[in-house]
Design brief:
about 160 residues, alpha+beta, six-stranded antiparallel sheet, two-stranded antiparallel sheet, 8 strands
Length: about 160
Amino acid sequence: MTTVLLSLGSNLRPQHYLHLAVEVLRERFGQLRVSPAYRTAAVGFDGPDFLNNAVMLDTAMPLAELDHWLHQVEDAHGRDRSGPRFSDRTLDIDVVYYGDLVVEGPGHLRIPRPELKHAFVLKPLADIAPDFVDPVQQRTLAQMWRAHPQYGDAFDTVELQE
């Protein structure tokens, strides 16, 4: 089994879609560790605020198969890929870590995800997996979060709803 850390985000009915995503993940993978959902401003475009959270799970599913399955989950929940890369979305689920694997392609797949530089990705991950060691930086997520410029800032936590 491999420990996988996912970053989830939504800015279109985000409480609804993040709740659904967690339920689908729970149905497929069983026990999950789920972070609080945090409200953050859209990055890269002008749009409604996002809610972001993180999920930790264990799976024997190979990375490529998992990535494909997550794209199907996004699509099944109304994800529109026809617009610009930075745009409103019902659901975005990214594999940030797949065990200690480091991947640079093909295509969009990069592990660890470069979005780790953003507090909306790093903080929820550090909440649920503070002792997880980044295979590139060789630091725990807690150490990485403590070194982040937004460490110590207040973040608005939002409850998910059905």
